[in-house]
Design brief:
The protein has 99 residues and is mostly helical. 62% of the residues lie in helices and 0% in strands. It is built from 5 helices and no strands.
């Protein structure tokens, strides 16, 4: 019972990636304990917590205009159009490359 309370405190309010990392450490520990004959079974229970979807990152206004200005200074009309297309349509780089 003490181990259950310890586990609840150990995982309380942690993000899924942190919980998975901690569970992985515990699984490894129990695997070694099984090999040494200290325990009979691996009692680490793993459940799928799912990862929250990450919002795509984008350049802020200042960096966007700075990038555009540098590209235009080097006579990069094509590159300027690509940057504007990515910015204003929401296309990903990979999607643009496949066009």
């Amino acid at each position: 019972m003490a181990l259950v309370k310890l586990g609840a405190r150990y995982f309380h309010r942690s993000k899924p990636a942190t919980i998975y990392r901690r569970q992985s450490s515990l699984r490894t520990y129990f695997s070694l304990a099984i090999q040494e004959g200290l325990v009979k079974e691996n009692s680490v229970r793993v459940r799928n917590l799912g990862e929250p979807p990450r919002a795509p990152r984008s350049l802020d206004e200042r960096l966007y205009y700075r990038l555009l200005r540098v590209v235009r200074m080097h006579d990069g009309k094509r590159d300027a159009v690509i940057i504007q297309l990515l910015r204003h349509t929401g296309l990903r780089v990979g999607e643009l490359c496949r066009l």
